[in-house]
Amino acid sequence: MNSVFVSIIIPCRNEEKFISNVLENILSQTYDKSKLEVIVADGISDDCTADIVKEFADKYSFIKLISNPYKIVPHALNMAIKASVGEVIIRMDAHSEYPSTYIERLVECLFSLNADNVGGVWINTPNSNSTKDISIAEALACPFGIGNAHYRTGTKEIKQVDTVPFGCYKREIFEKIGFFDQDLVRNQDDEFNARLIKNGGKIFLIPDVEIVYYPRKTIGKLIKMFYQYGLFKPLVNKKVGSPATTRQLVPPLFFLFLLTIPITLFFGKTLFLISLIFLSFYVLTNLIFSLLLSIKKHRLIMLFVLPIIFFSIHISYGYGYIVGIFKFLFFASATAKVEINR
Q: Residue 196: is it exposed, middle or buried by C-beta count within 10 angstroms (0-12/13-18/19+)?
C-alpha cells in the first residue's frame, strides 16, 4: 500500500521535549517518503516546539508547520486536515513513540479490512523509574482504573471497536460526515468516532501496532485530565444523540454515592451501615488491584501510591461528569473555556 499518499497530522503545544522524537519516528518509517506529508499544527507554544519543527521542515520538504491560534486540539486537527492532500489521514500525538512499520501497517489494515478508521494499542510507559511514574502508567492500563477500553488494556486479535487512539482515516470519511467538533476541548475523538459509526463506518483496533505512550507526570495533571474527560462526556452524548455507556456512568454514580453517605445518617443507622459496606467493598477492590499490580512490578511500595491514583481517577472523572451534566445539559452551554497544558 506504499502507493497511497498519506498525510500525517500532529496537533501539539509545548512539546519541546517530545516533538523531535515523533518526527524522527516518522523519518524512520518504512513507508515511501515520497508518498508522505507531515503537517504539525502548533498551538502558539510557549517553549521551543515551533523552532524545532522549523528545523526539521528546513531539512525535509514534506514536513510543514502551521499555526493554531486557538491552542486546542480540535481546531488543530481540522486546520491540518484542510491543509492536507492525502487519500489517507493519520493523526499522531507528539507525546508518543511509534514503531517503524506504523504507517505501513495501519494503511494496509485500513484497506484490507475495508475500515474507515484503524488504530493501535497504547503501551503506557513511565516517564521515569520512580514509584509514582510507574504507578500512574500501571493504573492507566488497568481495567479497574479506566474500564474496558481495549486500546488501553490490550487485546490479542484484531477487533472492531468504538474508538482507537489517534486514528488512521480514509479522507472520504471527513467529506461524508464532517470534521472534528470544535466545541470539544476533550473527547473530540470519541464524538467523531461515534458519529462515524452512526453513519455506518467501521473502526478496528490492530493489536500488533503498539504505541509507546507517556502518561502525565504528576497526579495533579492526571486529575485535571480526567476531570476534563468527564466534563465533556455529557456534551459528547448530547451531540451524538445517544446515552452514555454503563462504563461511563460508573464514576459519576460513585461520586454521587460518596456525597450521599453522610445524608443516610438522617434515615437511620441501617442505611448508613449499608452505605459503609458498599464503600468498604470499593476500598477492598482498590487495595486488591493495587496489591496485584505492586506484586507484578516487584515494588510493594506502589501499594501506598496506587490506591490514591485509582481514587483520583474515579473521583475527578465522576466530578467532571456531574459538572458537565449541569453545564451542557441543564444550562445548555455550548462550549467551555478550558486550557490544556501537559
A: buried
